[in-house]
Design a protein that fits this description.
Elements (H helix, E strand, L loop, with lengths): L13 H53 L8 E2 L5 E13 L21 E5 L11 E3 L24 E8 L7 E4 L17 E15 L5 E7 L16 E9 L6 E2 L3 H6 L1 E9 L7 E9 L5
Antiparallel strand pairs: 1-2, 2-3, 2-7, 3-6, 4-5, 4-7, 5-6, 7-8, 8-9, 10-11, 11-12
């Protein structure tokens, strides 16, 4: 009985393998062409969304602080790269002689020895030792109604530091000041509505060059009040970066024109570069209304 001869196993020839590789490469290149655009579009959208969120968060933080600015204390640098203001924590009404309450100390604009006064109706937040009491701030170097002219123990200004607060009567706390600068004013500048503001200190937002050479938006706080707008602030301020990859530091803040001052509008203009494309950027503009009624 004759058996059939066994078949020999066949593999791919070199030509067939090369053809398969070429075909797979062509198919891969075609697929890559169609996939690249959607993938790149997604990456660009994600980078743009991240930059927008970062800019929006920074502007919201600045706006929140600006709304707590002491009336007439907002000042912007000449190049628009920085804004500074005195931040309030609370405020209230002070007792006066005209109120006719003899048993409680009043804020006396005539007797420098009287360093205590009564707060009428309490305050929204507690007044802390080391805070500043400001009355009728007009700003702009108006002596004695510019809180930036504060100097420890100096006469003729509208700002004093709090030495202590007696809260034994919560609705009528008694504030003890380190001195009564109000009584040393050459022209007494009383508040028409007997109002005062409590200031914790100055705040600065500045666009500056970071350590890596790129521009960043920085918040400074915890430094002394100064008549000059110093950049960076003097002393040993605390510092925090609130936005990076800033595209342009010029005119980030605008408040110098007569129109914006009359309208009490601080214009914020922040542009950030994308993380994956330094040539592209997002730009957000915000207008913040500040209270300039002293």
């Amino acid at each position: 009985m004759n058996r059939p001869a066994p078949r020999r196993a066949r593999g791919f020839t070199l030509v067939e393998a090369i053809l398969v590789i070429v075909i797979i490469g062509v198919i891969g290149a075609i697929v890559a062409v169609f996939i690249r655009a959607p993938v790149q579009g997604y990456a660009d959208s994600a980078a743009r969304a991240a930059a927008t969120d970062e800019a929006d968060l920074a502007l919201r933080r600045i706006a929140r602080d600006l709304r707590l600015a002491l009336p007439n204390s907002v000042r912007v640098s000449d190049d628009g790269a920085a804004v500074e203001f005195l931040q309030t924590t609370t405020g209230g009404r002070y007792l006066t002689l005209d109120d006719g309450v003899a048993a409680m100390p009043v804020l006396d604009f005539d007797d420098a020895a009287q360093t205590r006064f009564t707060v009428v109706g309490g305050t929204m937040r507690p007044i802390e030792r080391g805070d500043f009491i400001v009355v009728y701030n007009l700003g702009g170097g108006a002596v004695p109604s510019d809180a930036y002219l504060y100097r420890q123990g100096a006469p003729d200004n509208n700002i004093v530091r709090v030495a202590s607060v007696d809260y034994s009567t919560p609705n009528h706390p008694v504030v003890t000041m380190e001195n009564n600068a109000f009584a040393l004013q050459a022209t007494p500048m009383r508040s028409p509505s007997n109002r005062f503001q409590v200031v914790s200190g100055p705040i600065t937002y500045a666009c500056e060059t970071g350590r890596d050479g790129s521009a960043e938006l920085v918040r400074y706080w915890g430094y002394p009040i100064d008549a000059s707008q110093n950049l960076p602030p003097q002393g040993t301020p605390q510092r925090a970066v609130i936005a990076s990859r800033v595209a342009d530091c010029s005119q980030v803040f605008r408040y110098g024109s007569d129109v914006t001052r009359r309208s009490a509008l601080v214009i914020l203009n922040l542009s950030l570069r994308l993380a994956n494309d330094r040539d592209s950027q997002v730009r957000l503009v915000n207008q913040v209304h500040v209270d300039n009624t002293p």
